[in-house]
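Researcher: First entry.
Model:
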Amino acid sequence: MAFERKNVKTNQEDAENIYGFSRSVKGYNAKEVNEFISNLMKNNSNAIKNYESRISEFKDNNEILSCEIEQLKEASNKHQQNAKSAIAAADETRAKLKAIQKDIDQVQSIKEENERLNRLVESLTSERDIAKRDAMRAEVDKKHAKEKLDGVKKELSETKKALAEALESAKNAPAPEKESEKKEAPASVQNPDAELEKMVGAYTVHLRKTRQIVDSLVEQLNKANDIF
């Protein structure tokens, strides 16, 4: 019986020593040690599960962050492309602005030239109006000169006719009277040749002046004809 009790106790102790620790006379209580270790193992198991859960969560977060990083890289590349496009657009805009400024300068130059031409047109218009007035005056002067020339021609014709009649009359004059008759005759009749020469001289001077007037009038008419 004693042997059996000893075996039962031994088996009980072996069951309690589930972790296989070696026996010692003054060691700790095996049951308490086993409970402590069991609790410790449970805590470790919970901690491991907690860490594994956190590791899984970290992996998920890492994947999310990796996706976000990829998205940020794509966004960065897109921003870089947009920046390059913006720089190219800015360069193109600057070139267009230069071309526009050049066009503006050309427009300003054309505007100034247009203003100069307008002033020139106004000046030419004023000169044209003056020329029209001068032409009208020249037309009037031409008409008056023509009338005066016609009058002078008529007077010249009448003078020539009178001179011809005087010469014809002198040719047909009677023979000179005797010496006694000359004394009694008037002074104008005593020397008809001298009187005729005097008349011819006067008509000659008159004809010369008339010729000068005619030449002057002809010159004025030629000038008037050149104007028109």
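Researcher: Second entry.
Model:
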Amino acid sequence: MIVLTGAGGRTGKALLRALVARGADVRAFIRNPEQADGLLALGAAEVAVGDMTDADSINRAVAGADVVLHVGPPMHPQELEITQTFVDATKAHGASRFIYYSVMYPILRDVRHHALKLDATEMIVNSGVTYSIIEPCRYMQHLDVIWPTVLETGIHSMPFNTDVQFAVVDLEDLAAATAMVATQPGHEFATYELAGPQNLSQSDMAAIISEVLGRPITAEALPLDFMAARAVEKGASEDRVNQMRVMNGHYDHSGFRGNPNVLQWLLGRPATKYKDFVIRLAAS
């Protein structure tokens, strides 16, 4: 049995589908019980309802599991404390392995989202638990959010300049690789950086979208103030908005580049290219 935390989110659902495809029994850990039926329909064997800040519900969820695959809540200020509780439960209940879904380059300490992951990683390594750590780059699926606007306006707009590059990666590839790590032996005490096969700027992405759609798409930098205001409208907390500002400010001057070799080794095939992802998105 694999306990999958954060199972109701975008990443969690992708991981659930990939784990089920590999024949795994998955206990989905969620906060909102209204998500239970949907996750069972995706193939979860069980659903455990609880709170990542509540040790009792975490212990109930982990009891009887062999592997814990932890996807923490995005940008949560208690990342370290939450992860510590799951590690403690993993050890207390005799699970064989703890898998931490982190972020690529947690060493970027000026970005708190990354620094929190680094603190959690340090704790995991020193905890005595048998672990695997997944460090994904930025998702190609960030295009999903702005896709209707791209189609309507012909503008691809993200909150950083149009020239810095990102090794964007397909979440479906990440899920497949992570599911392999979770269901196979031989990945103990491994840390895997998982980046996409191309380092692309926003201008590069717009050019690829133009090619797929057969009409011009231009790239524009979205002002950070506009991004923050839109996030507040959608209910983001002040803390999360501030973290997003810092993160995107860092990306604005440094980008987020990487190398696809590890991902492709795990997959046993080439990683999905951005054009193929856009073709898939356009067809859907």
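Model: Note on the second entry: Residues 2-136+170-195+258-271 form a domain with the Rossmann fold fold (CATH 3.40.50.720).
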